[in-house]
Write the structure tokens for this entry.
Amino acid sequence: MARPRSFDPDYVLHAAERQFRTSGYNGTSVDDISAATGLGRGSLYAAFDGKHGVLLQAMAGYFARLGQFAPKALAGPDEGALERLHAYLLRAVHGVPLAADVPPAPDRAAAACFAAKMALEIGASDSEVKRLANDCFSVLATAVADCVRAAQRNGDIDPDADPDDLAYLLLTIIRGTDVVGAYGHSPARLTSIAESAFALLPRPRHH
Amino acid sequence: MARPRSFDPDYVLHAAERQFRTSGYNGTSVDDISAATGLGRGSLYAAFDGKHGVLLQAMAGYFARLGQFAPKALAGPDEGALERLHAYLLRAVHGVPLAADVPPAPDRAAAACFAAKMALEIGASDSEVKRLANDCFSVLATAVADCVRAAQRNGDIDPDADPDDLAYLLLTIIRGTDVVGAYGHSPARLTSIAESAFALLPRPRHH
DNA sequence: TAGGTTTCTGACTGTTCAGTCCATAACGGT
DNA sequence: ACCGTTATGGACTGAACAGTCAGAAACCTA
């Protein structure tokens, strides 16, 4: 009955996310988004309500992806919980690939958590961005804490440790590697930091 | 012989740093800097070579402040080293006050490490900023590692632990709290993260 | 194949931006 | 008191910006 849109909204949001990651929010113009996505200005405004709308929807998509990926990577039987935590930590400090249909980020600073990067840049003056970033953190914290509890049940982590505190600490470390990575440190160094953190996890006292 | 400048360069750089912290680099205009510092555009360009020059010199000043403060807070006799590390960690996760003559940052995101914030926003496309931020990190890493070594000599930290690895990890945690703080988490939560990290430091095995 | 509806494209507008420039002001030496 | 020198502040410029809009195009139904 009417002309269908000729683009895939997910692809567009991924491409826009990549642009925001690379140049920051204030560093990307609508023309940049237009060039990165192939959409004209009119389409961008009609479909996403302009630059800020694109950001919010891109962050919402990122949140949805996190909510799928993190529980999948961390949930499972108690026996493998500690190893899943280990693998997740090592993978997270090197940044997560964006999507199969969009080229990877060129710089480690662009591979940082999208929500974290936007929150640091404009979260102070944009409460919606701040809230979305906090949501991303919460979903991760829940998944990690659940995995810690599983490892505790399996006797791999000290049962006296608070799983929520530990989850917050681990996620804080992962966020910290985003920053350290942006300084230009090598992937090997980030791996080393992650391994040090993992080695310090409180093991159960055997008697 | 000639007209003397009527402003204090350090005050101007502090005020500009505050503005950059609050709005980010791309989010602050030269007029914003002009308003924050009281200087006209001509003076800004003559003394600091424009927006980018102001940033570089503000970061250099920040680096110099770090190079003074961190060693002073962390150096000292071996007996108190662990407690100095503890105090430094707790203070760092709440952000450092800027300067006595400039109002404090209004938001936790603006209290994050100045170098880290700029590196995440524009470090990927500005190698000078990236290098300066890395310098800031290095001077802190050295000071923290020295303090860890002192604590090891005093028998408060496992002598088998690598002090440099531990220093990197602790600084990564501090940088991570900058991000988590930007999400809007309470100071109490940040304190809790810092205490959890401190509690996990490897203590010497007594036999 | 014609009509109705929505998307698409790119030109347009007013604003804001970074950077330059110049007339004026403030000083120290003579 | 004068003069050379440097700082100051604001006007100016061309470019880039976000957002709007109207005409052309594509599609489905009938």
